[in-house]
Design goal:
Length: 283
């Protein structure tokens, strides 16, 4: 029969109590500061959401709860038409950019050629150049070539910056992959084309999808580039919203903003989830 030492037992209990206290969440000034900053950042969104359900058409004071503005929004032909244009522009730009951005990222990662460093630096310029500069440069370029502004010029302009975001996402995924998998596939008899489509491309799909979702949100949100390159009859959703808020923010615009926030948040969450899943998979 074992005889336990009371002093040893007491020390173990004290150690257990100390560990339990150390695991309790403690409020630090860093945590408090972070909480206050997040509260201030999201407070305008909270106010916007509350006033989208306000019965008053002037948003000056709370007069009652209503879903009238959301119902009115769904019956607004101009808003629905502008949304359709934005979705078409975003999908068109993302589809083209997905193909070009993937091939560009693979080419820069797998091959060496003269001027590669210069091309690599220029390919990511749309990420750091201000939107107003891209918009003015695109407009001057189209005017120099006497290309009339239309729906397709918006798509072409959006491809410029969507391409850079997708290429960056694919390049990040490529850096985590084993570069010898394609060589092993070719040693086993696969052609370079087969090794790309059957070995490399399936591993790049999460990065491609993440970049496409991010680029789509940015395209849907763009106002400056679209307003500079849009022709007659081509009105995107941000352009339509801007034209309406010149005389004041209406409750239906509040409702539209809430829906856009929810949609953009869902797409951003999906992109982040795909990126997280791709990082968990072994290369």
């Amino acid at each position: 029969m074992l005889d336990l030492d009371p002093a040893s037992t007491d020390s173990q209990e004290a150690l257990a109590d100390a560990m339990a206290r150390s695991r309790k969440p403690r409020l630090t000034w860093q945590g408090a500061f972070t909480s206050v900053m997040f509260f201030l950042m999201y407070l305008p969104i909270l106010v916007l959401t509350v006033y989208s359900f306000n019965q008053s058409p002037y948003s000056a004071g709370w007069t009652g709860f209503t879903l009238e503005w959301y119902a009115k929004l769904l019956r607004d032909g101009r808003i629905l038409g502008a949304l359709q244009t934005s979705l078409a522009v975003g999908l068109g730009a993302v589809l083209v950019s997905a193909v070009l951005g993937t091939t560009m990222a693979v080419g820069l990662a797998r091959y060496r050629f003269w001027g590669k460093g210069l091309y690599l630096g220029m390919s990511y310029l749309p990420l750091i150049v201000p939107d107003i500069a891209i918009a003015v440069a695109t407009l001057v370029f189209l005017a120099a070539l006497t290309i009339p502004l239309s729906f397709w010029t918006i798509v072409a302009a959006h491809i410029v910056f969507c391409l850079a975001y997708i290429a960056l996402a694919v390049s990040t995924r490529l850096a985590d992959l084993n570069p010898y998998l394609e060589e092993a596939a070719q040693d086993l008899g696969a052609t370079p084309v087969q090794s790309f489509f059957q070995v490399l491309l399936p591993q790049l799909v999460p990065g491609i999808m993440s970049g496409c979702l991010l680029a789509f949100v940015l395209s849907l949100d763009d106002f400056l580039i679209a307003s500079f390159t849009a022709g007659g009859g081509a009105t995107t959703l941000p352009m339509e919203i801007f034209s309406r808020i010149r005389t004041g923010v209406k409750p239906d615009v509040n409702a539209l903003s809430v829906l856009l926030l929810l949609g953009s948040g869902a797409i951003a969450f999906a992109a982040e989830w795909l990126r997280f899943q791709s990082e968990k998979k072994p290369s």
